[in-house]
Amino acid sequence: MKHQKVKLKPPSWLKTWFLDKFDLSAETSDELVSRLRSAQKKNILAPNSLSMMEGVIQVDNLQVRDIMIPRSHIQFVFHDDKYHDILTRILDSGHSRYPVLDKNLDDVEGVLLAKDLLKYVGREDEFDMDDILRPAIVVPESQKLESLLAHFRRSRNHMAVVVDEYSGTAGLVTIEDVLEQIVGEIDDEHDHIDDKLDIRKHGDGRFTVLAGTEISVFNHYFKTTLPDTAFDTVGGVVTNEFGKIPKQHEELIIETMRFKVLRSDSRRIQLLEVNTAQAA
């Protein structure tokens, strides 16, 4: 007897419930975010899950230049540095990876992993930089973060050197920098060393600023007078000026500076671009 295969269909109530709760017929990223926020209001998504989903969606609109560590903040070592000099630099900065330079920041020869120095413990006189030097990944400022993350995954590298249009070193970017755009800030024991890392200069009067930057730090850096009585952070001031939680790419002008939202979720602004040269 020949058995006929039966195609099972989900109960109509289940299909109706799913379509009612998750309407994914959006045609734009903004519309999709709006519907995800609606799902969160219905307690279908947890706030943290919504925040990460928004981060994933918005990563595609960001470029490496938006999140990179600028040239002036790069921690590096020279190819000809002595073993103990390198150890001193590592102890002072606390990083795990360092660009290795020949003469200057435009001559990056490779990357040093701090853990690779362990093989020379007890025989420091045999230290040879070329024996542990790893190749450096080089990416342009304009590369999309989605593409960079895929590159990191394929190559199993965690850091890349960022170059400008003239092939000069513009900065560094790490896999942590990319992931922070999705999951939020990843604090470690060294993040408090320099508050100015919250403000990154990119040239032409353009800066990226973490929305959580304290107003006093912002005012000191830019020589501004943003009010610090009602709000503690730059994000609070900008949100108040908008009168709402602004969406990505929305802009306004405060004290002759143009503020552009690079990333936000349903609860707060996360990353801003500040332009001091194009407020008009």
Could you characterize what this model shows?
Pfam families: CBS (PF00571), CorC_HlyC (PF03471), NMB0537_N (PF21917). Residues 5-11 and 189-196 have low confidence and may be disordered. The radius of gyration is 23 Å and the shape is globular. Helix content is 31%, strand content 21%. The strands form three sheets. Strands 8-9-12-11-10 form a five-stranded antiparallel beta sheet. The chain starts with 11 loop residues before the first helix and ends in a 5-residue tail after the last strand. Strand 2, helix 4 and strand 3 form a beta-alpha-beta unit. With 280 residues, it is α+β, with helices and mostly antiparallel strands. It folds into three domains: 12-59, no CATH class; 63-190, CBS-domain (Roll), CATH 3.10.580.10; 194-280, Uridine Diphospho-n-acetylenolpyruvylglucosamine Reductase, domain 3 (2-Layer Sandwich), CATH 3.30.465.10.
Based on the model shown, name its key terms:
globular, 3 domains, CBS-domain, single chain, Magnesium and cobalt efflux protein CorC, five-stranded antiparallel beta sheet, 12 strands, transport, 280 residues
What's the structural blueprint in terms of helices and strands?
Elements: H1 12-21, H2 29-41, H3 47-59, E1 69-70, E2 77-78, H4 83-93, E3 97-101, E4 108-113, H5 129-132, E5 137-140, H6 145-155, E6 159-163, E7 169-174, H7 175-183, E8 199-203, E9 206-210, H8 215-222, H9 234-242, E10 251-254, E11 257-264, E12 269-275
Parallel strand pairs: 2-3, 5-6
Antiparallel strand pairs: 1-7, 3-4, 6-7, 8-9, 9-12, 10-11, 11-12
Helix pairs in contact: 2-3, 3-7
